[in-house]
Every structure is written in structure tokens, then in C-alpha cells.
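Support request from a user on the community tier.

User writes: "When I paste my C-alpha cells into the form, the page sometimes reloads and wipes my input. The last time it worked, I copied everything first. Here is what I submitted, just in case something in the input itself triggers the reload:"
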């Protein structure tokens, strides 16, 4: 028998919460959409109010604190046609849905789940035409929302269209479904056949970019879904933000990236949590997080340690390299402006910084005359 997962969109339906809690959180869910399911809820230790899985999906009053912006990385700046972003020359993003398996409370695109959202295109034909007309685009990221929430037939139409574009060599699917509803994968033979077809018949490669945030999400059901995807020839990686009260601990990150490497899902990015409205309770201080990341990486093999600690900033993907007593070091891993490609930056430390914009004192490298100045 196939396992059917029941989705829940009304906080009042969460019986594990007290009536008082449900009433208090209703105000939060009226501002920021709520969605979970019975499988993911089963991973929560409801006796622990600070349980990390609970913090991922169950709202808190802290989300109402005024902080950040809805579009913290100014994605609208790079929107070329409805549902398509083109920030880096070789990569295009197709926003194919505004629904996810669950709504992570720290989501940087929570604006998509609001009533006045018009960024997602139900019909992606205009975005596909843009890609056809831009031969520099060799890889496309399907995102949203979660593309695997779509019916397999609709996903098949999108992948088939992309397969027909000669210059598209890679398609990536950004999804948390392996973590929140692995049965979507393990119980859908047609989805797995679609993945295998794309990898073996089109001359192109499919990547599944998983979103495991915490080791407790690596259940036997999730591992089975990952294994089945591997059998289709799909390359898998993982990315997660560093999140306060969820995984901002060296041992938690170590366990996560090490176990993923054992599963054949190499960790790809550790993100600095974006300063999105409602996210203050999840954001960590950059200079403290450097220590968390480095202590975790020091305890794993190179396969797990190759993960990069980055920020998805308006100006590009900025790698956070490290710090000394006085300075903190950044480099553009990917830059929207070609003049910033590979640019190395040194700033005077700001222990309270949560984002790149919090650093103001850029050090002029030509004024640093001795090594001792970097100590």
C-alpha cells in the first residue's frame, strides 16, 4: 500500500499544541503562511519546546518582530520575465510553483506564499522562450516553492521542454521533499522513470539539490528516497542555512555533513540565513558562525569538508572565508557584476554582523604594509 501524507494548513489542527498556543500563533500564520504534514510532524519531540524540527516548521511569536525585508536579496532585480530570474550568465532560475511540502519558518521566499504574490508563473512557456533565446545559459534551476510538489506529468512537460534546448546541459531541482515527504519520491514510479529518462536519453544531467537542515531528518524513509534517486543516475547534493536553535552547533553540522557524505549526497552550501522579514529568531552572527563551520569541518573528511559557507547577497554569492583578531575575509564565489568575479575583500570585524551589509569598514589592501596588521 502506498503511504499517503496528510497536509495541514491550519494551526488549529495541531493537536500537540495547547489551545492557548494555537490561539497565540494564529496571528503569526495570518501574516506568514503555515503548512506542514503528518509525516514531518512525527519527527518532532513535542515534549521539547526547543526541538529543532519543531522550530523548522511550527511558528513562533518571534516571527512578528520587525526585522529585514521580504526580498532580502532583491531577487526582483534579476527577474527578466515572470517566473524567471537571470543573475549569473550561465544560470537561469525558473520559479515553477508557490507551494512547498512544508513552509519552513525561516524561508527567504515566504513572500511567494502571500496573497499578493505574482512572481511565480503557472505557465512557464515565457521563461522557456527566454532560455531558448539566451545560448549562454547552460544550466537551469527549477525552484519556487518546491518543484516536486507538482504533478509528475507537469514536471515531465517542463523537463522535456528543457531537454529540447541544445545549450541547456544541466537541470537542477531544488527540493526539500526528501526530508519532508520522502514518499513523494519512493512511491512514484513515474517520477523515478522520468529522472532516469532525463539522465540516460537526453544527453543532459539532472541534479537534485536536497535541503536537509538537521540530522534528525535523515530517517530510513528519507534514505530510501535518496537511494532510489541515486539509481536513476541523478546527481544529488545538499544545502542548508545555518539556523539559530536548529543547527548552529558544530556537532550538529558535523553529523549532518558527514552523514550526508556517507549517503552519497555531498554537502554543497552552508548559507548565512538571509535577513528576511520574520527571520530574526533564526539568524546567527557571522563571526560566531565562522567558528561553528570550521569546528565542524575540522572533524570530517574532505568529501564533507568541501562544503562552502556563503551568503546569497544581492550582488552575488559571497563566500565567508574566515577571520583574524581584527579582520574578516570574504570572496565573491559568483558575482552579478563581472568586475567582482573572484574579488577578495577584507573588512574590520563587526561581532554583531548578521549580513554583508553590516560591514562598513573595507580595508584598503594597499595600506596594509605588514603581516602583523592582519593579526
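"...and here is what came back when it finally went through:"
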Amino acid at each position: 500500500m502506498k503511504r499517503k501524507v496528510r497536509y495541514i494548513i491550519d494551526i488549529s489542527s495541531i493537536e500537540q499544541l495547547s489551545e492557548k498556543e494555537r490561539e497565540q500563533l494564529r496571528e503569526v500564520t495570518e501574516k506568514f503562511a503555515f503548512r506542514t504534514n503528518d509525516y514531518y510532524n512525527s519527527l518532532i519531540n513535542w515534549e521539547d519546546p526547543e526541538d529543532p524540527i519543531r522550530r523548522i516548521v511550527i511558528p513562533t511569536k518571534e516571527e512578528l518582530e520587525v526585522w529585514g525585508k521580504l526580498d532580502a536579496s532583491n531577487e526582483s532585480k534579476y527577474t527578466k520575465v515572470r517566473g524567471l530570474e537571470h543573475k549569473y550568465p550561465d544560470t537561469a532560475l525558473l520559479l515553477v510553483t508557490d507551494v512547498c511540502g512544508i513552509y519552513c519558518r525561516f524561508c527567504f521566499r515566504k513572500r511567494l506564499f502571500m496573497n499578493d504574490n505574482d512572481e511565480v508563473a503557472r505557465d512557464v512557456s515565457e521563461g522557456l522562450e527566454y532560455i531558448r533565446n539566451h545560448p549562454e545559459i547552460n544550466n537551469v534551476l527549477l525552484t519556487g516553492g518546491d518543484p516536486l510538489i507538482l504533478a509528475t506529468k507537469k514536471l515531465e512537460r517542463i523537463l522535456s521542454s528543457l531537454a529540447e534546448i541544445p545549450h541547456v546541459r544541466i537541470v537542477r531541482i531544488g527540493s526539500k521533499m526528501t526530508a519532508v515527504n520522502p514518499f513523494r519520491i519512493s512511491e512514484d514510479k513515474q517520477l523515478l522513470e522520468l529522472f532516469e529518462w532525463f539522465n540516460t536519453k537526453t544527453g543532459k544531467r539532472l541534479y537534485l539539490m536536497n535541503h536537509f537542515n538537521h540530522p534528525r531528518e535523515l530517517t530510513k524513509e528519507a534514505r530510501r528516497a535518496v537511494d532510489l534517486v541515486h539509481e536513476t543516475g541523478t546527481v544529488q547534493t545538499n544545502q542548508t542555512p545555518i539556523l539559530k536553535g536548529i543547527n548552529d552547533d558544530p556537532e550538529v553540522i558535523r553529523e549532518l555533513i558527514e552523514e550526508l557524505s556517507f549517503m552519497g549526497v555531498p554537502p554543497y552550501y552552508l548559507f548565512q540565513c538571509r535577513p528576511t522579514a520574520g527571520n530574526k529568531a533564526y539568524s546567527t552572527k557571522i563571526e560566531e558562525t565562522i567558528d561553528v563551520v570550521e569546528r565542524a569541518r575540522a572533524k570530517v573528511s574532505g568529501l564533507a569538508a568541501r562544503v562552502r559557507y556563503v551568503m546569497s547577497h544581492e550582488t552575488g554569492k559571497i563566500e565567508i572565508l574566515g577571520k583574524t583578531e581584527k579582520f574578516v575575509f570574504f570572496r565573491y564565489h559568483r558575482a552579478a557584476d563581472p568586475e567582482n568575479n573572484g574579488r577578495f575583500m577584507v573588512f574590520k570585524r563587526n561581532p554583531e554582523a548578521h549580513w554583508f551589509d553590516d560591514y562598513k569598514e573595507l580595508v584598503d589592501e594597499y595600506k596594509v604594509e605588514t603581516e602583523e596588521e592582519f593579526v
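Agent notes: The reload is a front-end session timeout and is unrelated to the input. Residues 57 and 155 are 26 Å apart (CA to CA). The two ends are 63 Å apart (CA to CA). Escalated to web team.
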